[in-house]
Write a structure and sequence with these properties.
The chain has four helices and six strands. The protein is α/β, with parallel strands linked by helices.
Length: 133
């Protein structure tokens, strides 16, 4: 049985993030890792998902496996044109967009400052991390 709700916490209603049935969502980085798990869970719980990931990702295959409630938008999140195309896909396929979940991300495995080498990491590397995340 569901847990009783307290007077301060109303029960989830359909179409809320805790009960996503019927919501149309966009998941960046949706083909792998946390993004893939989010995409799969949302579809499993009745949401429709635009899975946005790099064209080289397994996004097309995953969307096909998940069925008609999932559409793949091949895009790089650092490209305004490609993200705009993904938003247009949400409108075309599902008529709207209710929720965006940002799971795209990259990291770098370098110290900000390496005291032994007296070297600061490259600004371009930091900018890429910020731009994707």
């Amino acid at each position: 049985p569901p847990a009783p709700s307290s007077p301060l916490t109303p029960p989830p209603t359909p179409g809320s993030p805790s009960h996503p049935q019927g919501l149309v969502t966009l998941v960046t980085g949706g083909a792998s890792g946390l993004g893939r798990a989010t995409t799969e869970r949302l579809v499993e719980r009745g949401a429709r998902v635009v899975l946005l990931d790099l064209p080289t990702s397994p996004g097309a295959q995953l969307a096909e496996e998940l069925g008609e409630r999932c559409a793949f938008a091949p895009a790089d999140v650092t490209s305004a044109e490609e993200v705009t195309a993904a938003l247009a896909l949400a409108q075309k396929e599902f008529g709207r967009l209710d929720v965006a979940v940002n799971c795209a991300g990259v990291g770098i495995a370098v110290k900000t400052y390496n005291g032994k080498k007296d070297k600061v990491h490259e600004l371009e590397d930091f900018q890429r991390v910020v731009n994707v995340s």
